[in-house]
Every structure is written in C-alpha cells, then in structure tokens.
Amino acid sequence: MRAILERLKYNGLFVKMFVIMVVSIISVTLLTSWVTIRMSERLFMNTFSITNSKVITQIKTNFESFNYAVITAANNVLQSGSIKGFLSQGDGDSGTIETNRIYFTAIQLMKQYQANLDAYDVGMTIIGANGRSYTSDNTVWPIPKNQLRTHPITINTNAEPKRVMYQFSGGTPDSLNPVIVATKALYERTSGTLYGDLYIAIRETAFKRFYTNFTSDGNDVVILNRSGVIVSSNRDDLIGKLNVGLLSFAKQIEEEGLPYKNASVMGGEYVLLAEYLPTYDFYVVNLVDKETALEQLVNTRAVALICAAIVLVALLIVFVISKRLTRSLSLLVRQMSNVTKKNFHNYINVKGSFEVKELGYAYNYMLDELNDYVKRLVETQREQHNAELAALQMQINPHFLYNTLASIKILVQQGSKEKASDTINALISLLQNTIGNVSETVTVSDEIENLKHYVFINHMRYGERIKVSYFVAPDCLDVRVPKLILQPFMENAFFHAFNDKPDGYIYVLVSAEAGSLLCEIVDNGSGIEGLSDNGKLPNPKGGRQLFSGIGIRNVHDRIVLLYGNAYGVVIDSKPGEGTKVRIRMPLL
Amino acid sequence: MKKVLVLLLASFVLLTACSSKSDNDTSTSEGTNDTASQGTTELTAWAWDANFNVAALNMAKDVYATQNANVKIDVQENAQADIVQKLNTGLNSGTTKGLPNIVLIEDYRAQSFLQAYPDAFYDLSSVINASDFADYKIGPTSLDGKQYGVPFDSGVAGLYVRKDLLEQAGYKVEDLQDVDWDKIIEIGKAVKAKTGKALLTQDPNDLGLIRMMIQSAGSWYTKEDGTTPDLKDNAILKQALETYKKLMESDIVKVTSDWSQFVGAFNSGDVASVPTGNWITASVKAEASQSGQWAVVPFPTLPNTPSSVHASNLGGSSWYVLNIDGKEAAAEFLKQTFGSNVDLYQNLNKQIGAIGTLKAAASGEAYSAADEFFGGQTITADFAKWTEQIPRVNYGMHTYEIEDLLAVEVQNYLNGKDLDKVLSDAQSQAETQIQ
Which of A220, A332, A434, B389 has the smallest set of CB atoms within 10 Å of its CB? Predict the structure, then answer.
C-alpha cells in the first residue's frame, strides 16, 4: 500500500493526465454516439412516418374497396323487391308454392350478391321483421337468429337506418372468433318502414388481412371504433380491449393534422400515426414501437462494442504516450527530491525528451552556480573574519601601555632598575609576539612565554598577590596554537576572579588528551555569577584595561572557525570556588 | 509499439466481426408447413358442421395426439361452400399457399376436384386399403384406380319422425316401415290437420330430397358415365319432381332458407319429420327435451317406381390430403385415425352419432347399441342395414352444377311450367354448361 502510494506520488502527473484523458475520451465517445444515434433516430422516425403514412393510405384504400363492395351489396339487397318480399311478407300470406318461390328468388339473389363479396370471406345474413332470415355462412358469426333481433348491433343499426354501420362483436358463446359486422337497416324508401336488417360479418382474422401485409414486429396496426374498443389488430391480444388513451391520441392526430405523434401507450413508447375512416367510423392507428424499430435501425450491441473498442485503443495509445512523456519527468523529480539538506552536489543524469534534458541541464547548472557561490561566500566570510581579528589584534589597548609604562616609570624612580628593565623586556616580548599576522600560529612554549610576560607585567603593576603556576606537558611544547589564545582568559582571571579576595592562584595546564590539545586555565576566585549552561562566557562590559581588542568571547569563535565544531572553549564555574576554562584544540 | 499494433489489429478484426453479424437477422421466411421429418409438424384441416365433421376431426386429433405429440393439427371450421370456393380458388391459381393439409369433401363433389386437379391430391392407395371401406364410397373417392380419399361418414338416409306428432295424427312408427312418398304426403296432411305442424322443411335452393328420391331408384342427374346429363326423359327424375310438386302443393312443407333454419325447425318442434342423411342425428339429439319422441324409419320409396328401394343416400364425405408439404404426416394421421381406428369409430358413433364406412367398425358394440333418444331403437344397426341397400350411382362431376340449373327450372315447374318442358330446358342448359 505504501509502495503504491509512493509510486503514485511520483506518477502523480501521469495519473492526472491519464485520468483526464480517460474521462475525455469516454465522454467524447459517448457524446458522439449519443448525438449520432439521436440524429439517425430522428431521421429514421421522419422517414418512417412518411412511409407509414403512405402505408396507412394504402390500408385505407383497402378498407375503402371493401366498404365499396359492402355498400354495393347493401344497396343491391335494399333495392331488391324479392328480398323485401321475403323479409316483409307474413307466413300465411301465400301458399307453399308461392312462399317457396319467394324463398328461392331471395336466396338466389343473396347468393348472387354474396358473390360480389366472395373475395372477402364474409358471411351475409338478412333477417326480416317477419322473423325470416337467411345466412350464407353461419360459421363466420354463428349467432342465433332469435338473439339477433334484440342484439345491440341491430338496435344501433335501426337507430340510423340510412347508414351502413360497422360494428364489433367479440364473438358468440359457440365461437369466440371476433367479427366485424357491417350492418344496414332495410327500410321502405317511401314510407321509411323498417322491414329487416342486413348483416355482413367478416371475421377479424379476415378483416386484418387488409393491413397485416404492412405490419411487422414493432409495427402494429390497431383499428379502434368510436368508443375506443379495439375491433381489429394484428396483435391478437389487443382485440376487444378498450383503450381510451389510444383513441384520444388518434383523435388528436386527426383533428390537429399531425403527421405523427410520440406517445406512451400500453406500457411502451410508440410513434403513432392515425387515420380516420369516415365510412367505418373507425380509426386506423399505426403503432410503431420505438424500441423495436430503433433496435432494427441501431445495432446497440455493435455500437457499444465499436465504441468500447475505440475507447480501448485510444486509451492504450494515450497510456503508452503519456507514460513515455511523464516517465523522464518523474525520474527527474525523483532525482531532484534526493537533494538533501546542505548537500548541493547531487547532480542529475540528463536524459529523456528535449524539454526534460533542458530542465536537467538547467538544474545542474544551477547546482554548479550554487556550490560556487557558497564556496565564495565561505571564503569571503573567512577573510572578513581574519581581517576583523587582525584589526582587533592591532588594537593594543593604550591604557595597558600607559599603565605599564607608568609602572616602569615608578620603578625607575624608586631606583629598581632591575625590575624596570625586566618589565620593559617583558613588554617588548609581548608586543613583539602580539603584532604580526593573526592567523599565524605559535608553539605552546612561545604562547606560555607570552603569558608569563603578561603575568610579569601585571605582577609589576599590581603586586604579586595572585600566584600563577604553569604545568605544560613536555610533549605539548611544540604543538602550534593560534596567537593570544590563552591571554584573554588570564586577563579575565586577573581582573574579575579576585575582586573579593585578597589573594589566590591561577593554574595554567596544557596537556594532550584523546588526540587533542587541552589547555586549562583554572583559578580559585569568586567564580562567575549567572554563567549560562552552555558554558559560554557572558559578554564583558567595556571600559576596562584590556590588552588587545581580542576578548574571551572571540576565542571560541576563532577556534571553531579554524578547526571546526569538535573544538572550542568550555567554561565551568561555581560561585565562591573559582572558574575552570577548558580550551580544546587539535594537536598540530 | 508492436503490442499496440497487435492490439489495433485485434480490435479491427473484432469490429468487422461485429458489423457483419447484424446483417443476417430477419431473413427466415416461415412456411406454413415445415417438412414432416423434423420437429413438430403443424397440419391444418378444414371441415364443416361443428356438431359433426369438426367434432369428429377433433376426436381423431385427440386420439392421435396421445401417440404423436410432435404433430399438431389445427382444425378449422368453414362453411362447406367456403371450403369449395377456397379450394377452387387456390387450386385454380396453382398456389397451395393457405390451403389445408387435410380437407373434407362431399362425395358429390369429390370427382369434380379429383378430375379437375389431378395432381393436387395425394395418392393414398398405399396408405389405406380401399377394400376396408363400404363399396359405394370407393367410386367417388378414387380416380383411375388410385384411392385419393379416406372414406368417412355414410350418407345413408332415413326418415326421422316425431312419434308423438304421428300418434296425434293416428299413425304409428310401424305404419311407416314400408311406405312410399304418396303415403307420406297423406300422413303429412293428417299431421297438419291434427297438430298444425308441417311435415317437413324444404329449402328451395337445396334439392337434396329429389336427389335422395332418385338415388333410391338408382338414378342420377347424369348417366352412368358421370358426365352426360340425364334429365330429359328421365322417368325417375320426372316421378320425383311430380312427387316433389305434390308435396309442396299439399301445404305441409315449411320453407326454410338456410341450415340454421332447417335445424331450428325440427329442434323447435315445428316439423314432424326430417328426411335426410344419418349425419343429422347429432343435430336432432342436440334438443335433449325431445328425447324419446323421435324414431328413424326407412326412406320412403318413390311412387310408381318399381326400382325404388327403402334406402338412399344424402351427402356423406371423405377426407383428402392435399399434395403439399406435410402430406406424409397428414396421410399418416388419416391412416391411424379414420383409416383404421375401430375404437375411434365406436366413440364417434356414441358421441356424435356418426356412422363410418369402415367395415371393421360396423361389428363393434356401439353399432348395435340401442339409442334411448330414439326410444331404444338400434338406429345405427338400422342405418347399417339400409346402407347395404343403397343403389349405386355415379355422382359424376357435375351434381351441383346441374342442380343449380334444375332448381330454377323446378321453380318454374312449381309455378305451372310443363314438366317435360322443364326437364328438356334443364337438359339443354346442362349440356351447354357442362361442355
């Protein structure tokens, strides 16, 4: 997990780039497919509606020609005196022979009229007010004649005797075949008296032949009557069902003259085309199931597969290219991040693309510059420091000289020539050793000699109440140390350690310890108040009789500057017991 | 880079594979009948008369289905005229689309189909044994020695009478065992006088009664060759027409216009008798309230005609297999059912009163059983007895064509035209039309 996160961190750019590309490619693909499919859908729907409205016109023509045949048959029946006689005459009106003749003629005529409708597979029935009837084919609509007189179909027909009506019957108990019955009331032209009814029944299975050629899966035709009952459909499950919703759509299409309408009916999305058949008082509705139609148009599976393949290929290409692009960059980043604190020497292997190479060159050049600059800075600082020390070293305190010379004068006046002479010698040696290059080193023995001169002068000036002893290991005598490295501490001990005490002593110990030179200046004075824990001396206040500008606070800095952090000054002091200064330097 | 190339190539192959797949989806056209050899075979059968032929076919279908689940038979009821018209249309146009595998054809018409469309029907000679069936059925169902039809029901005719009405008029069933039509008319008048009911129904467009009359005397509309009209100078026909006119003039006939009125008339008790084929039994028995009131008596003879016997025939039909896909399966179906299954015929007889023409079936117990509806009369045995007496005639090809002409002339005759003139006119018209 960590490793993955680590990898991700360095591949962040790649991951981001790749994710963006993935999202873009997928969304572009999806959007393009969607828009294309939408466009082709619309185009398809438009074309489809044009074709289907032609189809509907053709269906309408088929219906019209059937209607024409029905009307012709109905007119023939209506105009036939023989049939009128057959249907209106009473049973007792004539003898058997005459009745026989009437029956014969009427049926012959009916058969003749029926012949006009032979193409349509219909059953013709006439039924008279006198109870006589004739059916050409009782299997089409096997309804008992006694029921027919009071059947709703008859009642509807008789209500509008002048019209040929098309009505739907869901079948009879004997035969569940739905039928469409064209009916016509037979009436006396002059008096208007009804004498019978004509029924031309066509099985729904035959009726649907007018349009089933044009239907297909997802392209259904439904014939609705005025009340919304589906009288015929290529989908058998719909026949006889009431569908008011569909009817209202059909009416809307018809009234508003819409070419087609998208609607949600019967639990699906359909494109509806409708046409009103005025002669039938039916609506022909063409239902195009969008889903099925478009499934035929758009092979969703193929589109999806093609899209997926394109996306996959594109992603592979993007993956490879962006991986190549970012690999050198992430390598660069990894190398750069290896540059640790204070280590500016981590140069980069320059390789990869042009941009990355340039970046690498620039980085390396910058490191060069940086190192160069640091080196120069260190050099400058060192020089500056040396200059500073030199300047300080040159500043032999005039007070010291004045006081020393004043003491010598007094010694001369007192006549102690010997002492005066020794003091002048000590001062001369001291000044001789002090003046000169500050960076020059002297041997420990020389430094101790200097120290002794300084102590001698001080003894001359202030008396010998402070005793000074020197313990120098013989193997350390030739070790070289910076000039005036011990003098400031001796000075400090003289002027601060014994302010409260009448007398005391100072030891100077020089020895080699653990490969380094250890110089110790120990006094038994009053100690230093407020010494900080790190052992550094507080900054002494000015206005005293310092020998030179170099103070004790410089000593540590000088040693560190010259020899490094391993060396330096440590001060240990206890109030009332004295101070111990330890100076560690390399054995040179 | 190589990998990428391989991948691109692979995806291209995939794409082409996808796009080529969408082409071949909806090109399978479905024939109405698949080859018989594989899977489920669907057969279509046409018949008329829901109470009789269609019912018989459905029973056969059920029997067959128990042993042959892979054959589905769609039984479609159509009016006989409709079947005739559709067959003619289909066979004339040379297309067999929409035609059934099995079709029922009335014996009167059989020859007209077999001779007009010799290749349209499947030769069943090797499927059934013609000698297993009643002899008089073989003539109409075969052509040139080849057996095309599976003979089905006997059209043996009888006179169905209402015993109760006859008794009211003073007659008994025993009195009608050996009578001619003159006697029947006399009885009819008595019945009419006593009960107000007509003797029988007649549809002026259906001369079935005349056909029965002339066949009982061994005559037909055509001569023995089956093609020459035999109307003029046909003494038997002349006698039949005279009897017919006499019947009509007696005011004992209820005129009907179609089948439903015909059935309705006797079911509602409006007529005292029904002279027709035995296939009407089921329709007679359909009116259960008249149980025990019916009897069947031998068909009356034609007056003044020595050759006339107490037996005749009306209708009767046979099954034919059309020479289209599925013919083997259809033939097999007929062979196992109507062609040989004695038990089926027993059941057909018990349930719908059908009298088959398979000789083996006649010995079954159902054929000798008494029928309570007919007052315990063994009507099947009686019909079987009469069957043997039916005079053989050659129905030929033109029965109904001639009858259509004759029906018009009969009307003229009834309305006063001279009978000889009527027959000679009909003869000349028939000769013109049939040529």
Answer: B389
Q: Do A105 and B81 touch (CB under 8 A)?
A: no
User: In a structure prediction context, what are the per-residue pLDDT tens digits for chain B, which is 435 residues long?
Assistant: 455 455 555 544 444 444 443 333 333 333 334 444 456 888 899 998 888 889 899 999 998 888 888 888 899 888 888 899 888 888 888 777 888 999 999 988 898 898 888 888 999 898 888 888 888 888 888 888 889 999 988 889 999 999 999 999 899 888 889 899 999 999 999 999 999 899 999 998 889 999 999 999 999 999 888 888 999 889 999 999 999 999 998 889 998 888 888 998 999 999 999 999 988 888 898 888 998 999 999 999 999 989 999 999 998 899 999 988 888 889 989 988 988 888 888 888 888 888 888 888 877 777 788 888 998 898 888 888 888 888 888 888 888 889 988 999 999 998 888 999 999 999 999 988 876
Total domain count, chain A: 3
* Residue B50 is assigned to a structural domain of this protein: yes
**Residue A226 covered by a domain:** yes
Which residues does chain A have within 8 Å of residue B241's beta carbon, measured at their own beta carbons?
none
Question: Quick check: B83 and B368 in contact, CB under 8 A?
Answer: no
The encoded tokens of residue B373 equal 């509806």
Helices (H), B217-300: 235-249, 259-267, 281-285
A434 shares its domain with A562? yes
Chain A residues inside the 8 Å CB shell of B202 = 100
Rounded CA separation A443/A485 (Å): 11
The Cα–Cα gap between B199 and A124 comes to: 29
CA closest to A92 among chain B residues = B251
Domain total in chain B? 2
Please report where in the chains the tokens 């009879």 appear, as a residue. A172
Question: With an 8 Å Cβ cutoff, are B411 and A104 in contact?
Answer: yes
**Are A213 and A179 contained in the same domain?**
no
Contact A108 B15 (CB under 8 A): no
Which amino acid would we find at residue A576?
G
CA distance A50 to chain B (A): 23
Q: In the listed set A278, A297, A316, which residue is the last one of a domain according to the structure?
A: A297
Cα–Cα distance for residue pair A403/A381, rounded to 1 Å: 36
Q: Write the residue in B19, B50, B81 that is nearest to A302 by C-beta.
A: B19
> Number of helices and strands (H, E) in chain B?
16, 12
Same domain for A401 and A536, yes or no, is yes
Nearest to B104 by CA among B316, B305, B295, B246: B316
Q: B18: distance to nearest CA of chain A, Å?
A: 6
Identity of the residue in A123, A137, A306 whose CB atom sits nearest the CB atom of B15: A306
Range of the domain at A480: 395-586
Give CA–CA dist A457/A408, Å, rounded: 9
Contact A138 B259 (CB under 8 A): yes
User: Closest Cα to residue B148, out of B117, B114, B115?
Assistant: B114
Contact A299 B14 (CB under 8 A): no
A121: its two tokens: 């597979």
The span from the CA of A579 to the CA of A135, in Å, is 147
* Beta-carbon pairs below 8 A across chains A and B: 112
Closest by CA position to B58, among listed B42, B71, B74: B74
Contact between A167 and A200 under an 8 Å Cβ cutoff? The reply is: no
Q: Flag if A107 and B205 touch (Cβ within 8 Å).
A: yes
- Please report residues of A whose CB lies closer than 8 A to that of B411: 100-101, 104-105
Specify the CATH number for the domain of residue B192.
3.40.190.10
What domain range includes position B104?
41-153+315-363
Is residue B256 within 8 Å of residue B262, measured between CB atoms?
Answer: yes
CATH number at residue A99: 3.30.450
Inter-chain residue contact B258 with A133, CB threshold 8 Å: yes
Task: Tell me whether 0.85 is exceeded by the ipTM.
Answer: no
Rounded Cα–Cα distance for residues A291 and A286 (Å): 15
CA distance B331 to chain A (A): 27
